User: Which sequence fits this backbone?
């Protein structure tokens, strides 16, 4: 095809423009990778819903859907003329970058569009009653569900994002021990405890052992998964220890008293395969190895409203559900992306993070039907 | 531990790898991020890098794998370092470069990777096959389909140029 002989020298022109970062940036990233193993979940998209059972009584008020005045520190979402966030949702190769639900049934989507020069981002929230709020973002935020909304982390800055579309910066207090109702929020370099009562972030206190991830139970107990050397991981709560399973690092998910931990490999080529699964017994007295399907990657691990464990690999769409009593291993009837819970419903995005329908399951992950991803309402039908 | 070797490779190969990856990602910022992540993975303790006969090829393979996984891109925003890419550095890229990147992003990933590494990065088919971990015949097939698709995608912009 002669056309391609006339292609511009894209590689050469980009090479000439590259500003080589100081080598210290490599070291910084290496440190961050280690810290990720030490203080954060290995799977960023992992849905960790701490103490949901005690949140269900928290009420939220439906906010107005009209644009609000600008206020970067407290109050409604900054001026977000609908055209601004719509330009991202409808932009070049737009796709859901991160999706999370919260206890009142609302769903938040961080959209990304691959515009020439630099990607663009927007946050779209759809409440349970169908009200939609949106804003354009300068940078994406990671979302952790909390009562009535999410904590959004932008670097080390935390924001409280209400499901009614409000946005406020979170203050940071002194380090303290976990309390009932706390939610663990993981950032780039460290982790925090979020208190729904005081709406503050507090640095997570130092914990013993080479732990990789943690979960705060509704009672305020800390469950950690830790590395035993480079090949095994295990789970600990007070004096209760699990057996070891394979894994270079691990990540956890919890919902009320149900907790699961995944052992993850760390391949030199970037792969993070699922290598082990630990589950908490229904009476909470012990942790044991659970059955699993050896996925080649892990995008999300979610405790479903029924207490089952759903693990997905958005790259391939492969997934499985381990029932709440840990006796049945089920493969869903279609490929799934990132799974999450909103209210009492179990959702998943289209796999490969494509801009497709949102999927919802009414039978604990066995079968799925299509609904609309927040932001795509106008394209419905 | 051989940090000195990695430093040497970094100084020489970083810009070249970013140039090679830009076609794979369709975005210079993402190319920089993928290459930086590859260097981080090559850091001391990663014996497979230090045993590699061709360190640059090792880095390229890892960077392509990083670029492939969207989860990786999600991951960096929450638990990894901030993006190092400075988009302003590429703000003055010519219009035809931007059109090419836009067209590349519309290709299926397998075709885009083959086109980017062979036609844009000038790597031989054998080296592309090695980087992507597929047989040479597969690369040739992807190149053939990718060329046809890319030519079609670029056609409208060429017509516009003549207006």
Assistant:
């Amino acid at each position: 095809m002669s056309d391609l002989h006339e292609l511009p020298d894209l590689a050469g022109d980009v090479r000439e423009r590259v500003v080589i970062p100081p080598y210290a940036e490599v070291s910084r990233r290496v440190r961050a990778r280690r810290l990720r193993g030490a203080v954060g979940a290995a799977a960023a998209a992992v849905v960790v819903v701490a103490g949901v059972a005690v949140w269900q009584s928290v009420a939220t008020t439906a906010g107005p859907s009209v644009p609000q005045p600008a206020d970067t520190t407290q109050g409604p979402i900054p001026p977000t003329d609908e055209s601004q966030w719509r330009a991202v949702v409808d932009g070049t190769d737009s796709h859901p970058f991160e999706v999370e639900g919260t206890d009142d049934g609302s769903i938040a989507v961080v959209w990304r569009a691959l515009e020439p020069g630099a990607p663009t981002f927007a946050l779209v929230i759809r409440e349970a009653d169908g009200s939609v709020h949106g804003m354009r973002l300068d940078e994406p935020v990671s979302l952790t569900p909390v009562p009535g909304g999410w904590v959004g982390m932008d670097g080390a800055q935390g924001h409280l994002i209400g499901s009614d579309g409000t946005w406020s910066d979170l203050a940071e207090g002194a380090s303290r021990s976990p309390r009932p109702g706390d939610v663990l929020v993981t950032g780039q370099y460290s982790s925090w405890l979020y208190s729904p009562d005081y709406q503050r972030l507090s640095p997570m206190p130092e914990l013993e052992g080479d732990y990789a991830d943690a979960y705060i139970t509704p009672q305020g107990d800390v469950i950690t998964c830790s590395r035993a050397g480079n090949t095994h991981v295990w789970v600990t709560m007070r004096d209760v220890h699990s057996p070891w399973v394979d894994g270079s690092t691990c990540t956890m998910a919890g919902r009320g008293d149900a907790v699961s931990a995944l052992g993850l490999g760390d391949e030199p080529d970037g792969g993070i395969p699922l290598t082990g699964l630990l589950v908490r017994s229904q009476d909470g007295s012990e942790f044991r190895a659970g059955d699993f399907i050896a996925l080649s990657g892990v995008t999300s691990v979610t405790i479903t409203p029924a207490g089952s464990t759903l693990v997905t690999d958005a790259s391939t769409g492969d997934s499985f559900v381990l029932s709440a009593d840990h006796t049945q291993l089920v493969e869903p009837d279609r490929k799934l992306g990132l799974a999450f819970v909103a209210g009492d419903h179990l959702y998943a995005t289209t796999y490969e993070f494509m801009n497709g329908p949102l999927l919802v399951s009414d039978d604990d992950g066995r079968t799925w039907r299509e609904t609309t991803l927040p932001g795509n309402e106008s394209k419905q039908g | 531990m051989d940090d000195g070797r990695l430093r040497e490779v970094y100084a020489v190969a970083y810009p070249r790898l970013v140039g090679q990856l830009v076609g794979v990602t369709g975005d210079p910022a993402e190319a920089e991020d993928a290459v930086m992540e590859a260097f981080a993975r090559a850091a001391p303790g990663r014996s497979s890098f230090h045993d590699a006969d061709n360190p640059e090829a090792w880095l390229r393979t890892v960077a392509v794998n990083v670029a492939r996984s969207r989860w990786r891109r999600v991951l960096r925003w929450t638990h990894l370092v901030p993006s190092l890419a400075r988009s302003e550095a590429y703000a003055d890229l010519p219009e035809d470069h931007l059109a090419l990147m836009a067209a590349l992003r519309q290709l299926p990933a397998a075709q885009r990777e083959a086109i980017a590494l062979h036609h844009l990065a000038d790597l031989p088919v054998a080296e592309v096959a090695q980087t992507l971990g597929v047989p040479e015949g597969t690369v040739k097939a992807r190149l053939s389909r990718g060329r046809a698709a890319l030519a079609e995608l670029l056609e409208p912009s060429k017509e516009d140029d003549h207006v």
User: Anything to note?
Assistant: Residues 114 and 143 of chain B are 6 Å apart (CA to CA). Chain B has two domains: 1-90, 93-163.
